[in-house]
Model the fold of this input.
Amino acid sequence: MKRTVDPPRFIISVKGRIVILFTIDGSEENKQQLSKHIVSDLGLIQGLVNAAGIADPKFDTKPIHEGRLDVWERVIRVNLFGVLLCSKHALPYMIKAGKGSIVNISSLAALTALPGVGYAASKGALLSVTRLCAMDYAKYNIISPGFIDTPLLRSI
Done:
């Protein structure tokens, strides 16, 4: 059976707070199970940072009339729906605890025209959805960083 949630990449404890970094696949069931396991092991979820970002520089940077729907859908599935599903399954535990904060990491592509239809659409939608969540949940934040030297940026 394929493992769908990688073991934590690292666990940090700072001033009594535990930070765990996970890599998880895109299925809703896995995101739901991860939230349940975290609460089972730690008692609550106080914060969530969604840092999802993929692109397909070979196909997604083409003009729209040359683009491929399957590429756009894959990028949007990870960059937007992956974030939404993680939030969806963490929020009930935060609401029950009466505290918690979510930070979604977006991109300059949400704010300005950059190549990559699927990437830009996913990050623009993430910005809009995060604003909507801020109305509903108050402590909801978004970061749209400048260019960061990552393998994704180097591939474009």
